[in-house]
Amino acid sequence: DIQLTQSPSFLSASVGDRVTITCRASPGIGSYLAWYQQKPGKAPRLLIYAASTLQSGVPSRFSGSGSGTEFTLTISSLQPEDFATYYCQQLNSYPRTFGQGTKLEIK
Amino acid sequence: EVQLLESGGGLVQPGGSLRLSCAASGFTFTTYAMSWVRQAPRKGLEWVSAIRASGGSTYYADSVKGRFTISRDNSNNTLYLQMNSLRAEDTAVYYCVKASVYSTFDYWGQGTLVTVSS
């Protein structure tokens, strides 16, 4: 099975900050990676697929990059509604594993 | 508008069974693979099972293999998850999820809570 490791697990930041979350895959998965955002009590929301393609309707302050074994999700300027938990997921093979999540909190 | 409406969750004793349903609308159900994803209380997301558009291929997480069965009724746009031999660790919110052409999970239901407890 493919293992995904996200870092950090917790991140404290302020409105307007630029933040980056990393997801490492073992073994490599090409560009078969997606990022999701989840707010408390809500279903996850797809943000990015194919490592760097922004899902329709997602603000352009979100961006993704990487391939193979290392991927990043960047939020260029944090907005109040961005404080949530973020998950990466690999779509290269079954089982479709998720990272353990990164909780982004307000500093 | 894509809608995924889960039902069938509830309280069940260890060793018991439950069948979840997901009524899909707003898209051509027969074209897309579907999955179930669960989330235990205060925990992360765990992919559970997937089924291809035709229903011809199914996939399972090791944690549920042999106990859960995914199926779909393409004539009624409904996805199912039959859960047998339930354990306390199966307690979670179960989400019905539509896969996009890129295999990513582009639409999620609101979730249904399954609680396994005596």
Structure keywords:
heterodimer; A: 107 residues; mainly beta; six-stranded mixed beta sheet; four-stranded antiparallel beta sheet; 0% helix; B: 118 residues; seven-stranded mixed beta sheet; 11 strands
Calculate the mean pLDDT score of chain A and round it.
97
* Discrete helix count of chain B: 0
* Residue runs with pLDDT of under 50 for 5 or more positions of chain B: none
Quick one: which chains have the greatest interface? A-B, 23 and 21 residues
Rg of chain A, Cα atoms, Å: 13 Å
Q: How large a portion of the residues of chain A is in β-strands, by DSSP E?
A: over 45%
The H-and-E topology of chain A, N to C, reads as EEEEEEEEEE
Helix-strand pattern of chain B, N to C?
A: EEEEEEEEEEE
Largest sheet of chain B: 7 strands, mixed
| Helical/strand content category of chain A | mainly beta
In spatial order, strands of the major sheet of chain A run 2-10-9-4-5-6
DSSP strand tally of chain A: 10
Distance between the termini of chain A: 36 Å
The global form of chain B is: globular
Indicate the radius of gyration of chain B in whole angstroms. 13 Å
| N-to-C span of chain B | 40 Å
Roughly what percent helix of chain A?
under 10%
Which residues of chain A sit in consecutive blocks of at least 5 with pLDDT less than 50? none
Q: Based on Cα principal axes, name the global outline of chain A.
A: globular
